[in-house]
Amino acid sequence: ETGVTQTPRHLVMGMTNKKSLKCEQHLGHNAMYWYKQSAKKPLELMFVYNFKEQTENNSVPSRFSPECPNSSHLFLHLHTLQPEDSALYLCASSWTGTAPYEQYFGPGTRLTVT
Amino acid sequence: KNEVEQSPQNLTAQEGEFITINCSYSVGISALHWLQQHPGGGIVSLFMLSSGKKKHGRLIATINIQEKHSSLHITASHPRDSAVYICAVRALTGNQFYFGTGTSLTVIP
Questions:
Q1: Which residues of B touch A96 (CB under 8 A)?
Q2: Is residue A114 within 8 Å of A15, Cβ to Cβ?
Q3: Helix (H, G, I), strand (E, B) or coil at A85
Q4: A62 with A55: CB under 8 angstroms?
Q5: Pairing between β-strand A10-13 and β-strand A64-70 as defined by DSSP bridges
Q6: pLDDT digit string, tens, across residues B13-65
Q7: A 19-78 residues inside an 8 A Cβ radius of B
């Protein structure tokens, strides 16, 4: 398997459920990202991990909890979500350093909160 | 106001037409990215540039750092070019990215 993969591709959950999104990159990158894409809004950066360490947390509510056990895997744990959290959640990876690098995106998880 | 503004928001073109999508930004950047998103969600990086011009096949991207403006051109457009095109900038410091809302392009045969 190559590139960036995400599972599941679609998820429907109730507001009291707990679920997790998974992202895996096979590119040898050392940075991974979670983005939220809501209808008619720009992509929002949620979390950034460099070498497994969280370096950005853009004021994301605590009902979203990221986990990065190693440079190839990234999880987003979800609990007690709200209907407005329904969106496309995209994972990306890249190299990181003083120079900017391209990001490679996964196919996304379409989340619906009922 | 969003740090990255794109125009137009929607664009319909006949196959073969020359297409231009514009992006303006208001922050200092280390790089600007043009992304393509097809229905279904997957995003592909088309270009990353910090100066001048890049060309890949029928796609051309330009950037004017002084004017904080970039354009994406598609020559001889084709229905398979139909997608949402997103402009994104990486801030000069830190790991912050800002995204435009995207331009939805439909190319009619």
A1: 95
A2: yes
A3: helix
A4: no
A5: unpaired
A6: 999 999 999 999 999 999 999 999 988 778 999 999 999 999 999 999 999 99
A7: 31, 37, 40-45, 48, 50, 55-56
